[in-house]
Each structure stands twice: as structure tokens, then as C-alpha cells.
Specification:
Layout lengths: L7 H18 L3 H22 L9 E6 L7 H6 L5 E6 L33 E4 L2 E4 L8 H5 L5 H5 L4 E9 L3 H10 L5 E4 L6 H10 L4 E7 L20 H12 L7 E6 L1 H4 L2 H14 L2 E4 L8 H7 L4 E3 L2 E2 L6 H18 L1 E7 L2 H12 L7 E2 L12
Parallel strand pairs: 5-6, 5-12, 5-13, 6-7, 7-8, 8-9, 9-10, 11-12
Antiparallel strand pairs: 1-2, 3-4
Amino acid sequence: MTDLSAPLSRRRARQEKANEGRRAYRLPIARTAFALLGAIGIGVVATVLLVETPYGGRPSATVAISSTVNANPVAGAVSDGTSMPATITADPEMIAIPGTEGESGAMMDMALADPSDIAPDLVEETEFGQIPRISSTGVTPFDAYSRGSGSLAAADGKPTVAIVVSGLGINPNGTLEAIAKLPAEVTLAFAPYGKGLSRSVASARTSGHEVLLEVPLEPFDYPDNDPGPETLLTGQAPRDNLNKLFQVMSRFGGYVGLLNNMGARFTASGADFGPVMEELGARGLGYLDDGSSNRSLAPQLARANRVPFARVDAMLDTNPSRTAILAQLQALEDKARRNGSAIGIVSALPVSIEVVTEWARGLEDKGIVIVPASALMEKTDG
């Protein structure tokens, strides 16, 4: 009997039996997929908890480190004199040093540039971090970190010029490029912002550069013109401004003194600027005035508080073009010949770095000696 001629109840029974057979062999696809995903997740968690892979997921490369005449100085510092493989692994804050990538594409950890001459006796622990102080034996941070000692004697009576590059540290790659290109006698001023400041400053000091810390001070058009967080303001309680100062001072170490970032209003107020300069004197730090305001009381306050002091003679890249910067540098040379010395300042623009680097190469032939800024900062007994 065919299904068509079978009674309706029998056909239903046969159909239900067939459906049961198909259901018996049907795979539970959704449940199987969820089970697989769960197993994978458990495996990942177990790997993280049980397997020690501290550098997992970070790019690494193996390069040969050898002690040769033209070897990288950082590599040479860790080489034992024989060629040996070393694995350099990129930390989250690691920065590629321009010109060192090579064929291997390896990166260098700036933490290797460690300024070992920052003595514990020259720092004070505060709620904001470490800030400079005079040591128990009377050594000042200005004297300890100055690279200008003996520079004037070495000049042997020739005119001297100091060049300060400001605004470093905010752009790590640009900062490292400036450190690599500029002569060691050029003074580098770092803003208290940016990532990995301690490493960048350590690299600068290891390369022989003298370092200044930029402190943000209130201009006349503040807050429309804002030098940055923790700006010291007029009309505030001295303790509030000193707390801001200490926060800025704790960002890195090894600097000979401070350089103002803006501050025409603040430096013209003795009531506000006075306590800051008094603190610098008590901590053995210098102060370089960027020369942007004729109303600044820095010369008088520095003298009264025995703070090593100098004032910048010329801003060299107000017009950031090669021709204009070269013209300003020529004027700076002329002033140095007339007065015996002169100080110029540029911002950390690529064009400024390039022009200053090229200009410095031919300075000796002109009978002018380039010196760190501290060499031209006057020390007084008050």
C-alpha cells in the first residue's frame, strides 16, 4: 500500500517516525560553536595566568652589538668588547632614535641613557616628587650640572656665544633629532610636558648638553595666551604658586636652572615673582630670562637672592625662515664681538635646528667660541 492510499493516521505516524530519525542525526551546531569558543577563551586565560611571557606581543629584533670605533655609543656601553647578539624589545614608551634603525629596524630604549651624576644628596623628596636642593656639603645643582665650567678660560679671550634651544620634550622624535644634530655646547631647555621626559633629558645630558627647565609664567593676555598647565599666576597665595613650581620642578632632574616660558605679567610683579626667585636661591639654581619683556624684575631679584643669572640678547627665529635666522645669528656674532659675549635663543623648529647646526660648524673659523649658557650666567654674593 502506498502512502497516498494509506489511512491518514498511518501516514502521520510514518512522517513522525521519519522526523524523529532526522532529529536524531541533526548536529547541534549553535551549541557546538559556543562550546568551542568557550574552550578557546579558557585556553587564553590559562596561558596568561600560567605561562610567563613578559614581552609577549611586543616587537623585538636581534642585532649584533660590537665594540668598534663607529659603534653606537649606547651599544658600546653595554658591549663587553666582543660581538654578541642582544635582543632589544620595544616597551610601550620606547622611542626610535632617528638614524639608528638600520637594516634590522631595531629600536633603542632611552632608559639606557642614565645620568648617573644626579646625586641623591642633590634632591629633596616632596609630595610632588624629587626636586633639586643644595647638598649637605654645600654643592649646588647649578655647579653640579653646569657644563660651562672652564669654557671661558678655554675661549682664551675670544668672543663667546651661547645658544639655547627651547620647547624641547613635547615632540619626542624631534627632541632626539635635535640632541643628535646640535653641538654639545648648545644648551637645551625642556618644557615640563610630554611623555618620557626623564629619558629625553638623560639622553641630552649623556650627549654633553647642558639642560634648563622651562617654567610657565603668566603673560599679560592670560588665559587667551596660555603657557600650559601649572602656570604660575599673579595675585595668588605664594604657597599656591610654589606648589605649582614644585610640580613643574619634579618632572625631571639634572637641570642647572629655570627659563621662563612667557610670563611678562608675572615677572613684572615683585610680590609674586619674589618668592619664586627666593626659592631658586635657596635651592642653588640659576635663572635665564628669555629677554621678551623689558619690565621683568629678574635681574634685581636674582641679585638679591644670589641666583646665577643671565638675560637672552636675541630671539633668533621670530621669523622662522633660513635667511632670517642666519641674519639674526650674524647680528648675535657682531654683538659678541662688541661686548665679549652674547646669548641667543631659538625654538625647537626643524628649520631652526638645521640652521643653528650648520652655523655652529663654521663658528671657530670666525674666531668665536660657542659655550653653554651657564658660562655666561653671572653669580653674585648679593
